[in-house]
Amino acid sequence: MQQPKILILLGTGRENSVTAKLFPAIVKIAQDYGEITVATADEHATRLTWEPSPAKVPWPQLVETSDAILIVSPEYNRSFPGELKNVLDQGYKEYKDKVVGIIGTSDGPFGGARMSEAIKPTLTTLGLIITQRAALFSFADKIAEKSEQEQIEEIKDRVTPILEEMVRIYRRFSN
Ligand SMILES: Cc1cc2nc3c(=O)[nH]c(=O)nc-3n(C[C@H](O)[C@H](O)[C@H](O)COP(=O)(O)O)c2cc1C
Fold it and tell me: Do the beta carbons of residue 73 and residue 147 sit within 8 Å?
């Protein structure tokens, strides 16, 4: 069966980000579900909207050549990081009918639940199809202290349903 090209985006550029510490484990888990490309808000965000991309391959081009997007993001002030919005706003038509999954993190008890809801209107407006479930990691700072292998063991059961759903939706739409 055909595997999707999955673009995985780290949604924060914050120094010492806990989410960034979990990101490699999530990427490893995703490798069983498709051909992976990794991107970070840090390398793609511009200072102002519509400024030229600082990245070697601009974000819209990465989206264009992908089938699915997995957003891995912390919750900032009950929403998603500004740099993530900046990156998402760089494209429009490239997103149409592609599937997107959301993985949220927080050092508190809600695991980025408010972020995962706040980002949905933007994703829908871009023409993306959002998976039914999101994976939310509360007290992510504690998970991030562990080794990559331990992180994989701890988060795998919640990350794989998102990936499975992304693959399922991709296959339905690619017929
Ligand atoms: C600017 C800012 C705003 C934040 N707002 C929230 C919030 O609304 N809800 C929440 O649960 N955690 C919030 N946090 C805490 C993050 O959940 C925490 O930093 C966690 O480690 C994930 O973010 P990180 O990847 O930047 O480390 C906020 C953190 C920052 C830096």
Answer: no
CB 105 near ligand 1, within 6 Å: yes
By the 8 A CB rule, do 125 and 95 touch? no
CA of 65 to the centre of ligand 1 (A): 31
Distance of alpha carbon 158 from alpha carbon 175, whole angstroms:
28
4-47: pLDDT as tens digits = 999 999 999 999 999 999 999 999 999 999 999 999 999 999 99
Ligand 1 mean position, distance from CA 45 (Å):
19
Query: Above 70 in pLDDT, residue 175?
Result: no
**What average pLDDT does range 81-107 have in this prediction?**
98
Nearest protein Cα to ligand 1, atom 6: 76
Map residue 158 onto helix, strand or coil.
helix
In the reported structure, the alpha carbon of residue 169 is separated from the centroid of ligand 1 by a whole-number distance in angstroms of: 30
Is the domain spanning 5-173 CATH 3.30.565.10? The answer is no
Ligand 1 atom with minimal separation from the 18 CA:
27
| Residue ranges per structural domain of the chain | 5-173
Please give the model's pTM, rounded to 2 decimal places: 0.98
Rounded distance between C-alpha atoms, residue 21 and residue 137, angstroms: 13
